């Protein structure tokens, strides 16, 4: 697991398995249409429901927003750059990266309505934010509020923490973070995300990732030092060649 924030991790691992890699079924689009979102580097947890026998697949990932710099990933930790810009139709302000979630129920009862899916999200750039201080988006409630059906088999989307609804308790299904209560897209640090599935009020599995937001190396500042190092190496090689003659 990528994050140290996992709660009831023993229970989650006992009910399933976690891998990192491609998730071809995920489009991270609520309509299910292929929108070009990358799905090759996803933290995937597969759980067998202890009651209905369903196979539940949870997927979490992070990606660049539109044509911003692509993120690199390593086993559930994603590297992103700080900043925000305005894109889309209609244009909206957002951080340079998105978080993607995918929850699917197959076999057995085969419907998301038999479970509660929650996306925990982080506004605090400090590492190790307690789970109790994370915001929560109840995906079942949000699905119904947007006119979705409780009998669908998949809930998925790509979201940006800079969208205002993540900080509003007035939006159905949203419980904002209780520690740091506003998201700063320009802040560097570590942001944690957990996709959890509950059954009868009890967690039965989760998938979790972290997004490490850091400034890109200042090439203009390091270039002179690199050139100086090359010059010193060249001078050393020249002296060595003369000494060898």
Helix content: 10-25%
Q: Structural class of the secondary structure composition?
A: alpha+beta
Mean pLDDT: 87
Number of strands: 14
Distance, first to last CA = 59 Å
Which radius of gyration do the C-alpha atoms yield?
A: 22 Å
Strand content: 35-45%
Sheet with most strands: 7 strands, mixed
Taken in chain order, the helices and strands follow as HEEEEEEEEEEHEEEEH
**Order of the strands making up the biggest sheet:** 4-5-14-13-9-10-12
- Assign an overall shape: globular
Textual characterization of the structure:
- By secondary structure, the protein is an alpha+beta fold.
- The chain has three helices and 14 strands.
- The protein has a seven-stranded mixed beta sheet with strand order 4-5-14-13-9-10-12. It has a five-stranded antiparallel beta sheet with strand order 1-2-3-8-11.
- Helix content is 16%, strand content 36%.
Describe the structure concisely for a colleague.
The chain is an alpha+beta fold and 245 residues long. It has three helices and 14 strands. β6 and β7 (92-95) form a beta hairpin.
Using brief descriptors, characterize the structure shown.
245 residues; disordered N terminus; 5-stranded antiparallel β-sheet; alpha+beta; 14 strands
Structural topology:
Layout (H helix, E strand, L loop, with lengths): L8 H7 E6 L20 E7 L6 E10 L7 E3 L2 E4 L3 E4 L4 E4 L1 E10 L9 E6 L13 E4 H7 L8 E6 L14 E2 L13 E11 L2 E12 L5 H26 L1
Parallel strand pairs: 5-14
Antiparallel strand pairs: 1-2, 2-3, 3-8, 4-5, 6-7, 8-11, 9-10, 9-13, 10-12, 13-14
